[in-house]
Amino acid sequence: MTDHYANLKIVEGASNSVPTYTAAQVREAEQPLLEDGVPLMARASWALAQVALAELGLTEGERGVAPVARRRALVLVGSGNNGGDALYAGALLADAGVQVDVVPVATRWHQEGMDAALAAGAKRVLPFEVSETLEVVATAAGSERPDSPYDLVIDGILGTGTGPDPSLRGEAADLVSDIWDFLDGARYWHQVVAVDIPSGMHPDTGECPGVSLAADVTVTFGGVKQGLVRDDAKWLVGEVILVQIGLEDELAKMDATGEAEVQRILRVGDTIVDD
Q1: Would you give the distance in Å from CA 72 to the centre of its chain?
Q2: Which candidate, 259, 207, 263, places its Cα nearest to that of 236?
Q3: Residue 138 has what pLDDT?
Q4: How far is 161 from 140, CA to CA, in rounded Å?
Q5: Helix (H, G, I), strand (E, B) or coil at 228
Q6: By the 8 A CB rule, do 229 and 260 touch?
Q7: Can you give the pLDDT at residue 5?
Q8: What pLDDT is recorded for position 57?
Q9: Whether the predicted model's global pTM rises above the 0.85 cut
Q10: C-alpha 32: how far from chain center
Q11: Could you tell me the residue ranges of all domains in the chain?
Q12: CB contact at 8 A, 199 and 192
């Protein structure tokens, strides 16, 4: 797994104890960098892709190899920046030889990210097509536990910009429910990577009032949102990886809401993706 972190700086230290912040504080810290043209989405999506490649278990030698060596990834895409992060990461996965299906679950999405994903070879599919595929696979397995058609799911539906009620609705809720039901009965548990926070979870309270997709890994950007480390959210969040994308100085000016342990801290910056 660590091979794919070669171009990410792993922050060394005696402890992975970090401050926690509200979602509003992290967004406030982002603003000056965005105004200065710092490519935060490029940094976040690049790191997300590296984590996804590691979760897929692809070696450096397998990247870009013919379809026989491919893994399959399903990218769930919402309308906001979370969806943009997921789409650009999907493009990088496709470039690396992963067979990628991107599934918009909203009426709009990050168009540049979608263009990048499709140009890299990803395929756009509709939510009902994914649900039908899962149903066909489960039916064909009969009384046996079915094999999953995907090795990895990237959850990029909702991020920290959600309102007081973070519940998934409509097609997004239906699709996530179908995926969850399928995973529960599958032969093996393929990996789920959440983008910043698991969709359907409130970033400040950790509450999940509706359906959500439990993550094996949550890749959170800039600062750890306080809801990720609440005890009642651990089942949903999985392993927390903090990716430092350049907000540290701005966040240091703010009063943290607490402190928590994360499993890994990664840093991405100018020399890696800004050229």
Answers
A1: 15
A2: 207
A3: 85
A4: 40
A5: helix
A6: yes
A7: 46
A8: 80
A9: yes
A10: 24
A11: 2-30+40-56+69-273
A12: no
Cα separations in angstroms, 32 against 8, 82, 114: 24, 19, 26
User: What's the DSSP call for residue 231?
Assistant: G
Q: Which residue has the tokens 């920290």?
A: 160
Which amino acid is present at 212?
Answer: S
Q: Is 261 helix (H, G, I), strand (E, B) or coil?
A: strand
Closest CA to 194 of 228, 229, 156: 156
Question: Tokens in use for 138?
Answer: 């489960």
Buried b (16+ CB within 10 A) or exposed e, 36-59: eebbbbbbbbbbbbbbbbbbbebe
Place of tokens 């240091």: 252
Contact 228, 220 (CB under 8 A): yes
CATH classification for the domain delimited by 2-30+40-56+69-273, as one of 3.40.30.10, 3.40.50.10260, 3.40.50.12710, 3.40.50.300: 3.40.50.10260
Provide the pairing of β-strand 239-244 with 217-221.
Answer: parallel
- Residue ranges of the chain with pLDDT lower than 50? 1-6, 13-14, 61, 63-68, 270-275
Give the residue carrying structure tokens 């991107």.
102
In three-state form (DSSP H/G/I as H, E/B as E, the rest C), the secondary structure along 131-184 is HHHHHHHHHHHCCCCCCCCCCEEEEECCCCCCCCCCCCCHHHHHHHHHHHHHHH
State residue 8's pLDDT score.
56
